[in-house]
């Protein structure tokens, strides 16, 4: 029976080649887009899901009630970890993590390896299987390192790696370390990436801050015992915080005022491993909004839904040409369920062809998709039975939706009306109109969202950041010793186009080394708790970046006391509560007192997603600098950068990362938004094209139903333009209804998205007007093509037909 149905379905499809081709092309395009988008969502949701202890691993986040807002920090003080393990029940393991790209030397060759500096428990917490070595012993000694298989092959070829000695450049000095284990290469869905593991105690600043409760430098991760929940951990740690942070808590209470009454002002939260990838507070935050995977699924459903609507409309339109076949089958005793199954089988066969074509399209487009949208989807994801099961289930749901309704509609037709050629499929237009509205709601939402995202991207690109981005070159120092930095300064002095040189602990924007970070300090001042960002800089920092000095001056070698001087921004001056802070002194924690030598105008040293925080700039040893900023004035800045970069790499053979202009760095901060823009544009174009195809199919159906009416109107003297307007206005009403529904939905989505930015554009009403007009114009052009054809038809031929 099934084979017979398939044969009949195949025969009918061969007779209707145009119908089959349109449906297959439309459905395969939609399925291809849905597969790519759904796999993207699946990948984002399955990051870090391979860790055996994943359900018990958490990142520790600090929360402070400042009285104005709740401030979240992902860096913890080093003595806090051991105190937690000793004094808080249920904590099994802990580890800090500090990522770096470090030079490694073996023999005459040196390489850069992505490194995680961790504690001894790291391999006991996280599941990174070892090919050689034992996870219980691999990092127990300070001079031990663990390499991935790829890194071991790079260093030693095919020879045994365990037991060999390599040299690691730490703080400008080469130190010998012993390879204790070799790990399997890191899965591509891991947020924790490394080629080498090194004990955190080897970090150059570790000895200075290991006992500092007020210095928060690294993110902390814990593993709780089975049965211990995050909520119980957060509750049990409160007494410990009051024990070691009592002064800070008292200061915060004074700051918070009434909001602190009967509540904690400083507490810790445990962020589950499953949230590392998409939670903006996590150290491993991918830069993607939590809504991003759901956006992929929503777009998939919209695009496939629009294709299904087209499939339904084309199937119903095609039924007009099969009235004789339907009537004959019914008169010969065919039951409704047999007809339903027959028509559904034809839809199923079409969908099978579309699925095969969509898979081929997906395979061919996958490299381009990954490149354009910044993803890394690989075909090996189909080895997962859950993915295959999801695709198969989704496919059957689509065939039921796309083929089920037309089959059910045809199967229920009255046999007498069928034999007379009166299918009556258009009497109930509620479903048809609803489908049209849904199509254009999706299209208008996507068009509107695309416009708002484009506006925000333009705003980001044009927004004044408060510093010079166009003519300042950022050079990662890549472990260069102070002597090399001094030599670089001397060489740059010979360049006529170089106007100023400075250095910084942190980059501005996101450089080509991919590094970013911050340094937060907290201290007491006049019985208040002060929280500020700190930045180690070199001389001429404000001059090089063209920061506006509001009071005082920049750091200068002419003043010997600048070693204890600081330059602050407006927000810090306001937090100190002093009208003229120049010359005032304060003490940051246990450090020696510092005095303010200058105040600079607030500038966006972080992305526009964040508000400008208080900032304190200090002068320190050159070893604390990680970037050099070079200001140039030349008509050809690119050539200048190439010359400067060449000199730098000659002076520093360990240099790995390329230089970049600060305007490039700032644009890299918004890769997520650029990705959003591309996805919405692609989705909007697909939605509009497929919606137009569906509207065209319905127009064909309606014009066929109204051919006699059109003929009579022409005989009675109706003009072609009048007929076209008459036939089009019903469709345009539906599109206008879609616009009315879509506008508030698009506003809500974009309002929520813009909340991720502290600085953003306003959503203007005219965006939705333009999106609506565009949808109306597209709908009118689509329908008018068929309307004009019907209006130009010879009325004699229309009236002669029964």
TrEMBL record:
Keywords: Cell membrane, Membrane, Transmembrane, Transmembrane helix. It is a multi-pass membrane protein. InterPro entries: ABC3_permease_C, MacB_PCD, Macrolide_Exporter_MacB. Residues 297-415, 684-790 form the ABC3 transporter permease C-terminal domain. Its main location: membrane. Coiled coil: none annotated. The keyword RNA-binding does not apply. Residues 22-237, 481-640 form the MacB-like periplasmic core domain. It comes from the Bacteria. The chain crosses the membrane at residues 20-42, 291-312, 347-369, 381-402, 435-454, 679-704, 731-751, 763-783. It is found in: Cell membrane. PANTHER family: ABC-TYPE MACROLIDE FAMILY EXPORT SYSTEM PERMEASE COMPONENT 2, MEMBRANE COMPONENT OF TRANSPORTER-RELATED. This is ABC transporter permease. It comes from Chitinophaga hostae.
């Amino acid at each position: 029976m099934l084979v017979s149905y398939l044969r009949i379905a195949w025969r009918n499809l061969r007779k209707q080649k145009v119908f089959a081709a349109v449906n297959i092309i439309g459905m395969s395009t939609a399925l291809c887009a849905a597969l790519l988008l759904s796999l993207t969502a699946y990948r984002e949701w399955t990051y870090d899901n391979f860790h055996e202890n994943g359900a018990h691993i958490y990142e520790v986040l600090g929360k402070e009630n400042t009285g104005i807002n709740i401030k979240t920090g992902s860096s913890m003080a080093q003595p806090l970890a051991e105190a937690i393990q000793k004094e808080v029940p249920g904590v099994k393991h802990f580890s800090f993590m500090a990522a770096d790209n470090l030079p490694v030397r073996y023999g005459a060759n040196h390489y850069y390896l992505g490194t995680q500096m961790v504690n001894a428990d790291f391999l006991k917490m996280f599941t990174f299987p070892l090919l050689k070595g034992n996870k219980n012993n691999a990092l127990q000694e300070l001079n031990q390192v663990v390499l991935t298989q790829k890194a071991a092959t790079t260093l030693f070829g095919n020879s045994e790696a365990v037991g060999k000695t390599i040299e690691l450049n730490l703080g400008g000095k080469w130190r010998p370390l012993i390879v204790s284990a070799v790990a399997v290469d890191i899965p591509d869905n891991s947020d924790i990436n490394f080629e080498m593991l090194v004990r955190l105690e080897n970090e150059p600043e570790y000895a200075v801050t290991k006992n500092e409760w007020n210095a928060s430098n690294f993110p902390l991760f814990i593993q709780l015992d089975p049965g211990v929940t995050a909520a119980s951990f957060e509750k049990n740690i409160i007494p410990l915080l009051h024990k070691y942070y009592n002064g800070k808590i008292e200061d915060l209470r004074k700051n918070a005022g009434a909001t602190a009454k009967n509540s904690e002002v400083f507490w810790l939260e445990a962020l589950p491993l499953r949230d590392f990838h998409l939670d903006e507070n996590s150290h491993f935050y991918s830069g993607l909004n939590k809504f991003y995977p759901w956006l992929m699924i929503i777009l998939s459903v919209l695009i496939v839904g629009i294709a299904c609507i087209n499939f339904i409309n084309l199937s119903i339109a095609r039924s007009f040409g099969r009235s004789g076949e339907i009537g004959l089958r019914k008169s010969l005793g065919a039951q409704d369920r047999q007809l339903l199954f027959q028509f559904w089988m034809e839809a199923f066969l079409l969908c099978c062809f579309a699925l095969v074509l969509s898979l081929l399209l997906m395979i061919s487009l996958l490299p381009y998709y990954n490149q354009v949208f910044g993803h890394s989807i690989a075909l090996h994801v189909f080895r997962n039975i859950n993915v295959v099961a999801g695709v198969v289930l989704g496919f059957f749901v689509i065939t039921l939706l796309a083929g089920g309704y037309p089959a059910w509609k045809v199967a229920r037709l009255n046999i007498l009306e069928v034999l007379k050629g009166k299918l009556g499929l258009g009497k109930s237009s509620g479903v048809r109109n609803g489908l049209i509205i849904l199509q254009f709601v999706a299209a208008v939402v996507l068009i509107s969202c695309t416009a708002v995202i484009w506006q925000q991207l333009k705003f980001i690109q044009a927004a004044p950041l408060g510093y010079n981005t166009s003519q300042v070159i950022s050079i990662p120092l890549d472990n260069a010793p102070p002597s090399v930095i001094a030599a670089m300064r001397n060489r740059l002095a010979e360049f006529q186009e170089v106007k100023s040189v400075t250095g910084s602990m942190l980059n501005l924007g996101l450089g080509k080394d991919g590094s970013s970070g911050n340094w937060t300090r907290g201290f007491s001042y006049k019985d208040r708790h002060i929280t500020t960002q700190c930045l180690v800089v070199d001389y001429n920092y404000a001059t090089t970046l063209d920061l506006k000095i509001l009071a005082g001056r920049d750091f200068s070698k002419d003043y010997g006391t600048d070693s204890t001087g600081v330059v602050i921004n407006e927000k810090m001056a306001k937090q100190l509560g002093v009208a003229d802070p120049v010359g005032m002194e304060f003490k940051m924690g246990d450090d020696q007192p510092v005095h303010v030598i200058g105040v600079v105008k607030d500038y966006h040293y972080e992305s526009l997603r964040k508000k400008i925080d208080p900032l304190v700039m200090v002068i320190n040893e050159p070893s604390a600098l990680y970037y050099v900023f070079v200001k140039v004035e030349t008509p050809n800045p690119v050539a200048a950068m190439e010359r400067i970069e060449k000199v730098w790499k000659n002076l520093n053979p360990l240099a790995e990362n390329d230089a970049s202009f600060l305007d490039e760095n700032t644009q890299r901060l918004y890769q997520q938004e650029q990705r959003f823009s591309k996805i919405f544009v692609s989705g909007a174009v697909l939605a509009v094209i497929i919606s137009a195809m569906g509207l065209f199919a319905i127009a064909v159906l309606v014009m066929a139903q109204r051919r006699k009416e059109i003929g009579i109107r022409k005989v009675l003297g109706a003009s072609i333009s009048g007929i076209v307007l008459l036939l089009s206005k019903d469709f345009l009403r539906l599109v206008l209804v879609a616009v009315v529904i879509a506008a508030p939905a698009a506003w809500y989505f974009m309002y929520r998205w813009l909340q991720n930015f502290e600085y953003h554009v306003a959503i203007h009403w005219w965006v939705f007007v333009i999106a609506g007009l565009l949808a109306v114009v597209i709908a009118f052009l689509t329908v008018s093509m068929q309307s004009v054809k019907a209006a130009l038809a010879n009325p004699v031929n229309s009236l002669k037909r029964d």
